[in-house]
């Protein structure tokens, strides 16, 4: 039986081992392409693949678990072993990863006293239940049982969040209780108190996350260890992610990244973050919040070694050359044939206003005050709030109180204004002119914050209420819109310019290939192709086209449904054979 141990170095079968790993998130890649991405990792000379595990995908509703299809973690690990790779598993409840709520499930917030990532009994009980389900999928794939899993992580970058060592120790104990036998590790930034806060040195090997200054940061890690232990950059950041509104697609220097990789490999082991970023399909992008809300775009290209769509880059070739100096590079043919195809321009065939088909896609909840997404048992998407606000008059004081993230206000189905992030809560004034008036508010969850202190306040929708002339408005109809049932959209209704709407496009495919969807003249929304939500678009960029993997297409007739929220639509969409992530 193969063995793996952490002593003064990493040891595989009692022989020193240098881990050369790359990150691939199985949940950001269609399963049909898992093997292709893993093979390219192996061909670059890596011996290991690392992946996070997103709790919010595997337990989308409390007590309901999913390990099928794109969430078949077990199959991904088995494929890695078949390709000749070991596995580093990071099953922490929290993953960050620029992912919705950092991988935590939204329903945790239904507890008004919830303390995430602390030794808070209800939080620990929910982790314990999740771990029972998760580790049942993978424990027999540990290296101790003939599988490829070398080691697993306790929590994730905890030192930049808190220093509750009881929480860390109890998390590690839960892993052991559920059959984890391989060595454990933690990973933190090497700055300020992060290593000290996030480490449990007697239980788990401390590693660091950084993108530059490897020599100096390894020196800090060596001093922190206090004894001879392996040095490892668990996240060697070789690119970066894009947020909506950025002025460019982030890229980094190939030469600088290659030089830092050489420094990593001379002194220790490395996990390249990201080897292949993939895509934030659906509504699963995360967000950051420092001075303002910064939701991430649909692409998680990350300027990684493979592009979002799986192509080899100059950075890949530079890294392969350096790895080849210390490891034998394997040679074998790729097994997955991938092509790119342009399907040209197609016209919208049907369009209907959201208000005309609300009843077909959502059953209203009547309540005397607004309810949040979490109270509606809804994780992502939109909520529409409707209330009657009476006779013609001047509304001098209109405010949304504790509302996130982007809100459209309508009077009698006509858009008045859109408020986003810090604009929400500002006083607005308008005049009602009709004999009776209906207030409508469409609120979009742009992605829960995935890092730092703002994670504690990620209720979406309207939490406190709506002020109309100085007082809270009551008596609401509330429509939950997770947008996972667009097959129910009734296109027989009317469409009115300026309103949120659904548009349908039918297009033909002679041979399915990867393609890139452009929506020229469209404002903001998301796209569903043959039932697959391929993600959000927004005219502000930088991302201009959405990646559509070939497995989402079928030969012959295909269907696109586009939801656009801002009343800015066109009659045409275009499928290209090349991407456009924005200017570099």
Topology:
Layout: E1 4-6, E2 10-12, E3 15-17, E4 20-24, H1 34-43, E5 48-52, H2 55-58, H3 73-83, E6 86-90, H4 121-138, E7 149-153, H5 165-177, E8 184-188, H6 194-198, E9 205-210, H7 214-225, E10 232-237, H8 254-267, E11 269-276, E12 287-289, E13 293-295, H9 314-324, E14 344-347, E15 350-353, H10 354-361, E16 365-367, E17 382-390, E18 393-404, E19 406-411, E20 414-420, E21 428-432, E22 437-444, E23 461-468, E24 471-472, E25 476-481, E26 501-509, E27 515-518, E28 524-529, E29 532-538, E30 545-548, E31 556-564, E32 572-576
Parallel strand pairs: 4-5, 4-11, 5-6, 6-7, 7-8, 8-9, 9-10, 10-11
Antiparallel strand pairs: 1-2, 2-3, 12-13, 14-32, 15-26, 16-25, 17-22, 17-25, 18-21, 18-23, 19-20, 19-22, 23-24, 26-31, 27-30, 27-32, 28-29, 28-31
Please tell me about this protein's structure.
- By secondary structure, the protein is an alpha+beta fold.
- Helices cover 18% and strands 30% of the residues.
- It contains ten helices and 32 strands.
- The strands form seven sheets. The protein has an eight-stranded parallel β-barrel with strand order 4-5-6-7-8-9-10-11, surrounded by four helices. Strands 16-25-17-22-19-20 form a six-stranded antiparallel sheet, with no helix packed on it. A five-stranded antiparallel sheet has the order 15-26-31-28-29.
- It is globular and about 85 Å long.
- The two termini are 49 Å apart.
């Amino acid at each position: 039986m193969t063995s793996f141990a952490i002593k003064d170095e990493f040891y595989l079968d009692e022989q020193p081992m240098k881990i050369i790993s790359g990150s691939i998130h199985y949940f950001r890649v269609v399963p049909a392409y898992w093997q292709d991405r893993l093979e390219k990792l192996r061909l670059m000379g890596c011996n290991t693949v690392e992946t996070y595990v997103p709790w919010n995908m595997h337990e989308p509703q409390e007590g309901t678990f999913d390990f099928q299809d794109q969430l078949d973690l077990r199959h991904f690990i088995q494929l890695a072993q078949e390709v000749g790779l070991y596995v580093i598993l990071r099953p922490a409840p929290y993953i960050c990863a620029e992912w919705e709520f950092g991988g935590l499930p939204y329903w945790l917030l239904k507890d008004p006293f919830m303390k995430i990532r602390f030794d808070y009994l209800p939080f620990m009980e929910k982790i314990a239940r999740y771990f029972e389900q998760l580790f049942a999928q993978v424990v027999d794939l540990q290296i101790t049982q003939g599988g490829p899993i070398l080691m697993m992580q306790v929590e994730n970058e905890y030192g930049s969040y808190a220093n509750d060592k009881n929480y860390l120790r109890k998390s590690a104990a839960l892993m052991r209780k559920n059959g984890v036998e391989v060595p454990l590790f933690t990973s933190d930034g090497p700055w300020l108190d992060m290593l000290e806060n996030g480490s449990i040195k007697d239980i788990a090997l401390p590693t660091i996350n950084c993108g530059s200054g490897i020599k100096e940061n390894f020196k800090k890690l060596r001093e922190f260890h206090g004894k001879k232990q392996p040095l490892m950059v668990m996240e060697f950041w070789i690119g970066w992610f894009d947020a909506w509104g950025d002025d460019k697609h982030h890229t980094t220097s190939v030469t600088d990244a290659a030089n830092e990789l050489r420094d990593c490999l001379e002194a220790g082991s490395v996990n390249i973050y990201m080897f292949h970023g993939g895509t934030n399909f659906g509504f699963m992008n995360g967000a950051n919040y420092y001075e303002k809300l910064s939701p991430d775009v649909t692409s998680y290209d990350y300027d990684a070694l493979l592009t979002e769509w799986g192509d080899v880059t100059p950075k890949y070739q530079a890294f392969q050359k350096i790895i080849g100096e210390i490891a034998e590079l394997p040679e074998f043919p790729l097994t997955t044939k991938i092509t790119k195809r342009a399907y040209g321009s197609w016209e919208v065939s049907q369009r209907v206003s959201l208000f005309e088909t609300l009843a077909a896609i959502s059953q209203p909840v009547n309540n005397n005050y607004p309810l949040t997404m979490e109270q509606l048992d809804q994780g992502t998407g939109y909520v529409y709030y409707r209330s009657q606000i009476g006779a013609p008059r001047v509304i001098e004081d209109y405010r949304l109180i504790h509302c996130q993230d982007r809100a459209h206000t309508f009077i009698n189905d006509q858009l008045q204004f859109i408020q986003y992030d810090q604009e929400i809560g500002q006083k607005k004034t308008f005049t009602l002119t009709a004999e009776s008036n209906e207030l409508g508010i469409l609120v979009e969850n742009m992605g829960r914050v995935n890092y730092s202190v703002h994670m504690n306040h990620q209720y979406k929708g309207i939490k406190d209420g709506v002020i109309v002339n100085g007082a809270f408005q009551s008596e609401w109809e509330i429509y939950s819109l997770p947008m996972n049932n667009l097959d129910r959209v009734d296109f027989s209704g009317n469409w009115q310019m300026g309103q949120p709407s659904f548009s349908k496009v039918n297009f033909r495919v002679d041979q399915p290939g990867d393609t890139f969807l452009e929506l020229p003249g469209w404002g903001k929304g998301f796209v569903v192709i043959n039932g697959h939500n391929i993600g959000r678009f927004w005219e502000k960029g930088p991302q201009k086209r959405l990646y559509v993997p070939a497995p989402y297409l079928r030969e012959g007739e295909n269907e696109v449904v586009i939801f656009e929220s801002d009343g800015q639509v066109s009659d045409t969409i275009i499928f290209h054979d090349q991407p456009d992530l924005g200017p570099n």
